[in-house]
Specification:
Layout (H helix, E strand, L loop, with lengths): L22 E2 L1 H7 L5 E5 L11 H7 L6 E2 L19 H10 L7 E5 L6 H11 L5 E4 L2 H7 L11 H17 L18 E2 L1 H10 L3 E4 L3 H5 L18 E2 L15 H10 L8 E4 L6 H10 L6 E3 L2 H7 L6
Parallel strand pairs: 1-5, 2-3, 2-4, 4-5, 6-10, 7-8, 7-9, 9-10
Helix pairs in contact: 3-6, 4-10
Keywords: Repeat, Transferase
Organism: Populus alba x Populus x berolinensis
GO cellular component, one term: mitochondrion
Length: 315
C-alpha cells in the first residue's frame, strides 16, 4: 500500500496528512504515536455470532496509548436498534469524557483490519470533525509489522471508556455533564433515515449500495440477528464490503476500488447512499468512496435491521 503521508517528514499536523485520504499506514502511526495532539482509538466491534469481547481483547493487547471507543455504548439510547448514532450533545459528551478535543487528530483502528473502525471514523465526520483517519490494516497489520502492543487490566483508558458511556446516559436522562472539550456539529447530509430511503425508491435521486454479503442481499442466506428476514431495499445494489479490501485487510488502491464500483454500475458522478445490516460495514464502502474523491456519501443509519424490522421487505 502506498503511504498516505504527504511529504517526507513524519511530523504530525493536518498539513502532514492528506485530508482527502481516509487512511494512514502503520508506519506513519508508529512514527507519530507520541504526538500530543494525536488520539488513537481502538474501535473494535464484532458480529454477535463471533462471540468476541472487544473490551477484553483491548485489555489483553492494544496499540500503546490507545483509548477504547465502545461502539455499542456511544449510541442513541432512545431506540432499540443497535448502535444508532447518538445525539449531537451526547456524542460531544462522550468524546469529551474520552479526553478528545477539537484540535486533536484521530486515528481509529480495530481488531479485524478495516471493519468497525470505519464506522467510528464516519461518526466523527458526521459530527463535524474532519481530522480523522482509519489505520490501514488495523491491529493485525500493526502486529505483523513488528510494532509493540501493551496490555492493561485496569487502566485510565478503561475508566474513560466507562465515563463515556455514563456521559451518554446522563445526557439522555437530562442530567448535566462536563466539562465539554469536544464541540460536535451534526452534518445531516451524511445520515439518512428510513423515510429518506423510502422516498428514494420513488425519486431515485441516489444510487443505493448495500455492503452485506450477496446471500443476505438476495435473501438466500440468513441475517445474523434473530427475527430479521434477509433481502434488500428495492433498487439497491450489492457491493459486499470485503471488496474494498485486499487479502491483508488494507484498503485497495483507487484504481482497484473504481473497478469494484464500475462493475455494479455505480457512477461516481451521481449521489450515493450506503447501507448494510446495522450501519457498520456500510462505512467501509464510504471509506472506499472517500479514497476515490467522493466524500459526500450518506449512510442509512438504521440499515437493513430497521428496514426489515418495519416490515419493508423485498428480495
Amino acid at each position: 500500500m502506498a503511504s498516505s503521508v504527504v511529504g517526507t517528514r513524519p511530523n504530525f499536523s493536518t498539513q502532514s496528512l492528506s485530508m482527502n485520504e481516509p487512511v494512514v499506514s502503520v508506519d506513519w502511526l508508529h512514527a507519530n504515536l507520541r504526538e500530543p495532539n494525536l488520539k488513537v482509538l481502538d474501535a473494535s466491534w464484532y458480529m454477535p455470532d463471533e462471540q468476541r469481547n472487544p473490551i477484553q481483547e483491548y485489555q489483553v493487547a492494544h496499540i500503546p496509548g490507545a483509548l477504547f471507543f465502545n461502539v455499542d455504548g456511544i449510541v442513541d439510547l432512545t431506540t432499540n436498534l443497535p448502535h444508532m448514532l447518538p445525539s449531537e450533545e451526547a456524542f460531544a459528551a462522550a468524546a469529551s469524557a474520552l479526553g478528545i478535543e477539537n484540535k486533536d487528530g484521530i486515528v481509529v483502528y480495530d481488531g479485524k483490519g478495516i471493519f468497525s473502525a470505519a464506522r467510528v471514523w464516519w461518526m466523527f465526520l458526521v459530527f463535524g470533525h474532519s481530522k480523522v483517519w482509519v489505520l490501514d490494516g488495523g491491529l493485525p497489520r500493526w502486529r505483523a509489522s513488528g510494532y509493540d502492543v501493551e496490555s492493561s487490566a485496569s487502566s485510565d483508558a478503561i475508566l474513560k471508556a466507562s465515563a463515556a458511556s455514563e456521559a451518554i446516559e446522563k445526557v439522555y436522562q437530562g442530567q448535566t455533564v462536563g466539562p465539554i472539550t469536544f464541540q460536535a456539529k451534526f452534518q445531516p447530509c451524511l445520515v439518512w433515515t428510513l423515510e429518506q430511503v423510502k422516498q428514494n425508491i420513488e425519486d431515485k435521486t441516489h444510487q443505493h449500495i448495500d455492503a452485506r454479503s450477496k446471500g443476505r442481499f438476495d435473501g438466500t442466506a440468513p441475517e445474523p440477528r434473530k427475527g430479521i428476514k434477509s433481502g434488500h431495499v428495492p433498487g439497491s445494489k450489492c457491493i459486499p464490503f470485503p471488496q474494498m479490501l485486499d487479502a491483508s485487510q488494507t484498503l485497495l488502491p483507487a484504481d482497484e476500488l473504481k473497478k469494484r464500483f464500475d462493475q455494479e454500475g455505480i457512477s461516481l458522478e451521481s449521489p450515493v447512499v450506503a447501507s448494510c445490516g446495522t450501519g457498520v460495514t456500510a462505512c467501509v464502502l464510504v471509506l472506499g468512496l472517500h479514497r476515490l474523491g467522493k466524500p459526500d456519501v450518506a449512510v442509512y443509519d438504521g440499515s437493513w435491521t430497521e428496514w426489515a424490522d418495519r416490515g419493508c421487505y423485498s428480495c
